[in-house]
Amino acid sequence: MRLFDAMTVSASGMAAERVRMDLIANNLANINTTRTVEGGPYQRQVAVFAEVMNQARRGNAYGMGVRVVGISKDESPSPLIHDPGHPDADEDGYVAMPNVNVVNEMVDMITATRAYEANVTAMNAYKGMFLKALEIGRG
Question: pTM of the prediction?
Answer without folding.
Answer: 0.85
